[in-house]
Description:
- With 226 residues, the chain is of the alpha+beta class.
- It is 50% helix and 10% strand.
- It folds into two domains: 3-9 and 23-133, Alpha-Beta Plaits; 138-216, no CATH class.
- It has helices at 8-19, 56-66, 94-106, 114-125, 137-158, 163-181, 189-193, 199-216; strands spanning 38-42, 72-78, 83-88, 110-111, 130-132.
Amino acid sequence: xxxxxxxxxxxxxxxxxxxxxxxxxxxxxxxxxxxxxxxxxxxxxxxxxxxxxxxxxxxxxxxxxxxxxxxxxxxxxxxxxxxxxxxxxxxxxxxxxxxxxxxxxxxxxxxxxxxxxxxxxxxxxxxxxxxxxxxxxxxxxxxxxxxxxxxxxxxxxxxxxxxxxxxxxxxxxxxxxxxxxxxxxxxxxxxxxxxxxxxxxxxxxxxxxxxxxxxxxxxxxxxxxx
Length: 226
């Protein structure tokens, strides 16, 4: 999966809103795996909408694809979305590894060496703060919460809405976006929003979604909170 496609899922989820108007531990016990069976890569998988975490919907297909490659046992993303760890099968050889490394480089990944690699290897072998395969759905769920909260704040800044209604709307948007980002069935935008907003407020929310898309596309910075 190329970098120009890594945000497609989240962008599609947000466009869908307009159109319709904890981490696991490495399974094999990484502390016992020889370091020469683990490669660490620097990757650009930070979530644009929530820069403190990695992007689950962008990283998930990459991790799953890696684990389909001959020679690869497991692939993991760190919480920050800045590192991928590849655990090689015992029988992997230099040719198999080189092919995977070359594909990762096409996604602007850089294999780490030396002290930097040693530090990240230690972090990975601790088994804390790394996500494997579909476990990155937890990051997507966290991201959905961040986006839902920001959408509601944008609405509150433009129109009068009670605290109770705002909180209920945020929960509903959070639930819908979580399911969308992780591949589950979700209520359509109008169905969610019309339970809490009138027509004028819906227009404000649609504009907020457009603003969120600009954040996701790198066209505007994440607003400062507070």
